[in-house]
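thought: fold this chain, then report.
action: predict
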Amino acid sequence: MDFAGGMCVFPGGGVDQRDDDAEVEASGWAGPSAAAWAAQLGVDEDLARALVCAAVRETFEESGVLLAGPSADSVVADTTGADWEADRVALETRALAMTDFLARRGLVLRTDLLGVWDGWLTPIFEPKRYRTWFFVAQLPEGQVTRDVSTESSEVVWLGAADAADQADAGTLAMLPPTYLTCLEVGQHPSTAAVRAAADGRSVDMFMPEVEPLGEGLTLSMPDRLRPLVAARRTVG
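observation:
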């Protein structure tokens, strides 16, 4: 890709303008309201609704994992069938809107399975700039990740701490936000602990700036992450 080519990234992508559909919240939405999400994400309700819907849609498009179910307390058990794959491709090509997909299949968007983690803004010197919100979620029981994305050369499923270790070893290339997120998430002993930690978080969009490091330069990071990185450098 022309941005972050060759880098290991999380499933994700841009918001489809159809992701902001108030009807999905009225007819098939489990979990915090758009207003509650807005407070955590630091945006208005319309964008919060779109971001949550986009997070679920992009995760399905790029990994085959669907955070939705036939009721507010269930999740689709298997998305590997040909009919599911046809819908995934239609979503990916924008031939199908996420809200229409949910309505046609009678599915409830399980926003309660998502947690807010962080927000990053591309540095000002980059020719392409993005506001990116990071979410966490627990893999629904019975579902499996699949190598289905047309936007990646390879799909890998591994622990966050392992990913950070591979990045430090030079065997996995990551942009700083991905690496730092893996490093922070990897401090928690379980997925349940990660989700619990996410419940109390809110996004303060961070934009890295150039700062000195020894005799050279580096990009800044949120202050809360500096001790984690310093510890890694000391061990290394």
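thought: worth noting. The longest helix spans residues 45-63.
final: tokens above.
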